[in-house]
């Protein structure tokens, strides 16, 4: 369990004043990384939204930070980890990359690191779109979501037509010794998973849900709330996988999906039939998970 009093006494390892969007949950995720892992940490950042957190000559980090191309951050993290290992140093090497980098452009590098069981912690800050370049569809964009490349119009009344990839499962199948999902709206769960991952040697992966204000069209003061409601509705299962053993960390209340969908402008076009489809899909997903057939489910 997370000791809240001890966390409150820790020094912040990330400062304010970045060029990130107001209420950005991805940068909040980085703040939680610092709280969980401490100063003996190196951040490897793939090109994306978090590139805006350190723009020369300024940086918000009190730990080493390395910027890399969108496709090869995992490979760079592997090299850094091998360097520390050769020196006999115990350092948390954290790769922090967006869903576009992780699920598509850099997927080969991430998969390779998992296959080799490289000793890094890979975190995908998952906001479900290519947010830094205008909010285009990624392989993590939920079905029916409106994006720049799945706009609503005469030829498309549905938005994105493809379901998202289940990254945590894919990484477990690719060889990750520890793979999990988390949400910035459940910070203690995320911190616990980071601390657990830091004690395990090998490739660790966390798929972190990070709501995106401009991409999801959510009010700034409702960013934390919308992330919590997505988990509570069952749309984002929170679990961990160790040695193919699955543990559900947060049992959702299964609140109606319509309540969280209406908070996001990217779903403004949905009608009752489409909302009902999403609700049925989430219900079926959890029926499969609860029956013990986790590996047969796709997650929503």
Write a concise keyword list for the protein shown above.
alpha/beta, 11 helices, 300 residues, 8-stranded mixed β-sheet, Rossmann fold, 36% helix
What does this entry look like structurally?
With 300 residues, the chain is α/β, with parallel strands linked by helices. The protein has one domain: Thiamin diphosphate (ThDP)-binding fold, Pyr/PP domains (Rossmann fold, 3-Layer(aba) Sandwich). Helix content is 36%, strand content 15%. The protein is built from eleven helices and eight strands. It has helices at residues 4-9, 25-37, 73-87, 99-105, 107-116, 167-173, 187-198, 213-216, 223-233, 257-261, 272-290, and strands at 41-46, 65-68, 92-98, 121-126, 178-183, 204-209, 238-242, 245-250. An eight-stranded mixed beta sheet has the order 2-1-3-4-6-5-7-8, with helices on both faces. Helix 7 links the parallel strand 5 (178-183) and strand 6. The radius of gyration is 18 Å and the shape is globular. The chain starts with a helix and ends in a 10-residue tail after the last helix. The mean pLDDT is 93.
Number of strands: 8
Q: Can you tell me the overall shape?
A: globular
Identify the strand order in the major beta sheet: 2-1-3-4-6-5-7-8
The CATH topology is Rossmann fold
Count helical runs: 11
Helix residue percentage = 25-40%
Q: Secondary-structure element order, as H and E?
A: HHEEHEHHEHEHEHHEEHH
**Which parts are unreliable, with pLDDT below 50 for 5 consecutive residues or more?**
none
Q: What profile does the largest beta sheet have? A: 8 strands, mixed
Our count of domains comes out at 1
Average pLDDT for all residues:
93
Architecture per CATH nomenclature, i.e. the level-2 architecture = 3-Layer(aba) Sandwich
Computed structural class? alpha/beta
CATH superfamily: Thiamin diphosphate (ThDP)-binding fold, Pyr/PP domains
Q: Distance between termini? A: 28 Å
Query: Roughly what fraction of the amino acids lie in strands?
Result: 15-25%
Write down the Rg.
Answer: 18 Å
